[in-house]
């Protein structure tokens, strides 16, 4: 093991090995195992998507569904994206994983459509995908066309950091999505550093208020003031608002009173496998 750690340290650069403390060796070793397992996971189809409803506050109906990746690890069981997305981004593997997520999600949407249920699926994306030429947007659009799906069957969730980058590559891809009718949602709003001017510049369709602002919502909280301000600002820019992490009836009521358009959270449903989602949300109308 010590030999292996030393080998890896040296392989990163001839003079780097002496910076490795035992704790760092452990972390590096764990990371290597993870990366190796991720390669296997892609090859052996160990990933799956869970689906979480996003509810229209105006009538309680299903508005769209967010696809959330899970890793069915043969030894560790179901692994959360929080435990592998960063490593997948660092190694660039997120590009292949993201391509898999897209294909899988639209195949599911096509199945639902064939069963008479038109649902938009919202997929999470990483900035790494936007920077990579291996994330081929035309290929994505060709897949949609091959399944006779409109661009509007899909929304892409991006992070605030991506808007800050504003490279031509990022800009072109965002415009490409817009031209194809794919909607764009700004995820985890309020946790990054977005300059408000980016919201206008990039024609965002939805803004998702991060769950950290929703968690402690009560009538006298400053979080409520923040949510109200975000909603007013978004609406003035023609952007619709989704609240994440809605867990209680009170949070829902306060958000509705604040003018929030849509909600997502355990109050409605946890993310569930496709089969379970169908049991819960077909027909499309959700009973309040
Ligand atoms: P996110 O996109 O902000 O997704 C929302 C997260 O909040 C999900 O965690 C969901 O399970 C959780 N959540 C939903 N409702 C509630 C609630 O009422 N209370 C609480 N406490 N949590 C709630 P999950 O599935 O573990 O995903 C974590 C993050 O991993 C996602 O955050 C997203 O950033 C990333 N992720 C998931 N799937 C993908 C993917 O396919 N590609 C990429 N690049 N990232 C992904
Ligand atoms: Mg998301
Ligand atoms: Mg989020
Ligand atoms: Mg728009």
TrEMBL record:
Keywords: Membrane, Transmembrane, Transmembrane helix. The keyword Transmembrane helix applies. It comes from the Bacteria. GO terms for molecular function: catalytic activity. Residues 31-285 form the EAL domain. This is EAL domain-containing protein. It comes from Amphritea balenae. The chain holds residues 724 to 1011 of 1011 of the full protein.
């Amino acid at each position: 093991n010590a030999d292996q750690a030393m080998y890896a340290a040296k392989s990163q650069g001839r003079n780097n090995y002496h910076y490795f403390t035992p704790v760092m060796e452990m972390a590096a070793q764990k990371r290597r195992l993870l990366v190796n397992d991720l390669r296997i996971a892609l090859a052996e189809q160990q990933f799956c998507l869970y689906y979480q409803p996003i509810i229209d506050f105006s009538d309680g109906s299903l508005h769209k569904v967010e696809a959330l990746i899970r890793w069915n690890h043969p030894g560790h069981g179901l692994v959360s994206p929080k435990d592998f997305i960063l490593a997948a981004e660092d190694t660039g593997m997120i590009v292949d994983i993201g391509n898999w997520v897209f294909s899988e999600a639209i195949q599911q949407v096509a199945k639902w459509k064939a069963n008479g249920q038109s649902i938009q699926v919202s997929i999470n994306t990483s900035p790494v995908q936007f920077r990579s030429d291996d994330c081929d947007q035309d290929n994505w659009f060709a897949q949609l066309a091959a399944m006779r799906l409109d661009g509007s069957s899909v929304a892409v969730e991006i992070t605030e950091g991506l808007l800050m980058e504003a490279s031509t590559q990022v800009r072109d891809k965002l415009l490409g999505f817009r031209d194809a009718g794919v909607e764009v949602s700004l995820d985890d709003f309020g946790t990054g550093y977005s300059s408000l001017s980016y919201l206008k510049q990039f024609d965002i369709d939805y803004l998702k208020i991060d769950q950290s602002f929703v968690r402690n919502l009560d009538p006298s909280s400053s979080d409520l003031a923040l949510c109200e301000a975000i909603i007013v600002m978004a609406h003035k820019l023609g952007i619709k608002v989704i609240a994440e992490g809605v867990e209680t009836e009170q949070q829902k009521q306060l958000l509705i009173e604040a003018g929030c358009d849509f909600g997502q959270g355990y109050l409605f449903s946890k993310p569930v496998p496709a089969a379970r989602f169908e049991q819960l949300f077909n027909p499309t109308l959700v009973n309040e």
